[in-house]
Amino acid sequence: MSESYKHKKVITIGTVSEITGLTERQIRYYEERKLIFPERSQRGTRKYSFHDIEQLMEIIEKIEEGVQTFEIRQEMLKKEKKRDERKIRDDMIRGQLNARFGIQQSP
Amino acid sequence: MSESYKHKKVITIGTVSEITGLTERQIRYYEERKLIFPERSQRGTRKYSFHDIEQLMEIIEKIEEGVQTFEIRQEMLKKEKKRDERKIRDDMIRGQLNARFGIQQSP
DNA sequence: CGTGTAAGGAATTCTGACACG
DNA sequence: CGTGTAAGGAATTCTGACACG
User: Fold this and answer.
1) In this predicted structure, what is the pLDDT of residue B92?
2) Tens-of-pLDDT digits for all 107 residues of chain B?
3) Contacts with B43 (C-beta within 8 Å, 6 or more apart), sequence order
4) How far are the Cα atoms of A39, A64, A86, B25, B98 from residue B36, in angstroms, in the given order?
5) Residue A102 distance to chain B (closest CA, Å)
6) CA of B74 to nearest chain A CA: how many angstroms apart?
7) Residue B63: its pLDDT value, please?
8) Distance D14 C1' – B89 CA (angstroms)
């Protein structure tokens, strides 16, 4: 509800380039390496979210540290996996509490 | 701090058109009538914020009700004036409290 | 590996103007 | 008044490729 703007894909690659300082070439390359996932508009142009931009900021730092895109991707997948596991676990706990006591937990 | 994305001018007119359903002609016209205030990118293209888009949604409703752009502008200015007055009054109260008691009020 | 660049085409955006009603 | 449209130019974006190291 809050933060709803953060993930809307509405920013063109030119604007992302302006904000991040990256060249369009770099931005497209990081997509090729599956570090960011812009959507496409009807006409086929890439659309990025504020979240994508923040993601790029982190990528810039890693690249400067000499980390390779492949490794950055590994780290991202690892974090995602942990998040998923946490979610499954929490959902399960909520489900059991609900089944036994009919309690509505706040998410 | 929160809501920081809402007012960043990063969306091109084409995207605004897609989201709102308005033609570019209409969007530019509402700017001419001083109902919205996009910024310009380095190259001179208009950039809108999520807030602008919400503003446009309200404008659409008013227009459909038969309200003229001039009147919509009047209403906007009136609301702005009230907000300003409230702010001045509150700032003054805060200032006096602070002067007499040195209390830090939360804004 | 990560990035630059030249290439050509397609789509975008801009302004000022004429039109209708 | 609010909106459509044709006009011409300038800037954007896209893809696939070659280059360097």
Assistant:
1) 95
2) 557 999 999 999 999 999 999 999 999 999 999 999 999 998 899 999 999 999 999 999 999 999 999 999 999 999 999 999 999 999 999 999 988 887 555 55
3) A14
4) 27, 40, 44, 14, 37
5) 34
6) 29
7) 97
8) 54
Domain residue extents for chain A: 13-100
Nucleotide of closest approach to B24 (CA, C1'): C13
Fold type of domain B13-100: Multidrug-efflux Transporter Regulator; Chain: A; Domain 2 (1.10.1660)
Task: Please give the C-alpha separations between residue A63 and each of A21, A30, A35, in angstroms, as whole numbers.
Answer: 14, 11, 12
For residue A84, the one-letter residue type is D
Collapsing DSSP to helix, strand or coil, B105 comes out as coil
Q: Using CA coordinates, name the residue in chain A closest to B1.
A: A3
Interface A–B counts its CB contacts (< 8 A) at: 31
Residues 5-44 of A with CB under 7 A from strand C: 23, 25-26, 29-30, 33, 41-44
Tokens 């309690």 found at: A103
